[in-house]
Amino acid sequence: MTATLATVPTVAPSIGRLLRDGAVAGVLAAVATAAVAATGQAAGISLDVSGAPIPVPGFAVTTAIFATLGLLIALALRRYAARPRTAWIRTTVVLTALSFTPDLLADAAPTTKALLMTTHLIAAAIIIPAVARRLR
Question: Where do the TM regions start and end (predicted)?
Fold first, then answer.
């Protein structure tokens, strides 16, 4: 009696699926960050930084821009990293933590700073896992 071990070839997810899922996550994150900013503003949290208000749509636009940059990073990691998913998660967690620096240094009320950092966490919580699922 002989046992045969069948191996399943590992197929990397397509670039199209990575871009599609990343774009959908980016749009969802943009909507979510704008909604959180609007909710915070409605609850009385100022969106003023250095005396100038951040418009609520600005949260969506900025999120979309950085989601696009994140997708470019994911594409590079997919191509060059030995373990793209692990590299993606590590890279984006570090970048998310670094994104708090401008918020902490901003000339803004503590509640405004907390709201800004919350929007970063929400965007990261939506985008990071969506893209990670499409990296091998």
Answer: 23-44, 56-75, 87-106, 112-132
